[in-house]
Amino acid sequence: MSVYDKFVANKRLRRAVLLLVVILLFYLLRSMLSLFLLTFIFTFLSVQLVRAVQKHFNVKPIWIIAPVYILIIALLVFAITNYVPQLVSQSVKIFDSLTKFYHSKEVRDNQYLNYIYQYLQQINLDNQIKTAASQVVNYITSVGAVGFNIFISFLLSFFYTTQIEDMNSFGRQFLNSNFSWLFDDVRYYGQKFINTFGVVIEAQLMIAVVNTVLTTITLIFMKMPGVIALAAMVFILSLIPVAGVIISLIPLSFVAYSVDGLKYVIYIIIMVIVIHLIETYFLNPQFMSSMTHLPIFFTFVVLIVSEELIGTWGLIIGIPIFVFLLDILGVHQIGGPKKPKRHKFRLKKS
């Protein structure tokens, strides 16, 4: 038996080598990471929608996806023309009001806030704010590239979903090729990736939407300024598992204190605690699979490491990638063993 035949026969080795090659390719093509991820997310959500509708109605994907995509485009155009100017205006006003509040006499005369002020002076917050502002400007100037990636991803997901049966039929042809073992391993990783990464991303999006809606309703009830800008910030931060809700507490507290003092800060803290409890005890069990329930320590470690390795995207996809790797390694009981299901299975088997 040749070395090649031995390699092909060793399924565990060849799959490990393939995984390393795929990771290397993604690293070399990391400049296209946004395009890959956005295309996968849009396609995954579209296919999930098609499968859900086809369970009840026997209709072709094109008749499901086309109206949905047209509606999404119409809503985007409406939002861009009506709400984006307000979002920018409110963001600038909030930034200016927080800057004035930070330098106000009220902060320096307050004993407790003065300690915070002195600490912020020590860490040179002014320069950090200027640096952050310059980064925001850079992001805005690169909005064309981001918009192009979103447009291409949106278009690719549309074409894939409308021809999903043809795509699946075409993909199955590779399983009968001369390198069928390679494409079989690729399919294996693809299924694992969809069952872990895709499900976690979908669940996190649903959680982010619910968190944003609850927060926005509370902010409107409290008559907070710049609700649109704050809601956009909360949605983006809610995409970060566990830590996002906590991080959003900091800017919300500053805005609340500048509006009506410590009383509003307490309201904001209560709101964040309630939303966090809803997320922990209701949303996560409803939207997340049990295997995605990581200990908080591991969650924060993964977020820190993935942000360092991947950047901003790492805060959003770090947990799904970690869960995917755990699934590949055969760690299936992250959320605890499912004893009831095993018990029932054994009774039926006996």
Automatic annotation (TrEMBL):
Q: List UniProt keywords, sorted A-Z.
A: Membrane, Transmembrane, Transmembrane helix
Transmembrane intervals: 16-42, 62-84, 136-160, 197-221, 228-252, 264-283, 290-306, 312-334
Record membrane topology: Multi-pass membrane protein
Where is this protein primarily located?
membrane
- Pfam families documented for this protein: AI-2E_transport
InterPro entries documented for this protein = AI-2E-like
Q: Where does this protein reside within or beyond the cell?
A: Membrane
Entry's family note: Belongs to the autoinducer-2 exporter (AI-2E) (TC 2.A.86) family.
PANTHER family per record: TRANSMEMBRANE PROTEIN, TRANSPORT PROTEIN YDBI-RELATED
Name of the protein in question = AI-2E family transporter
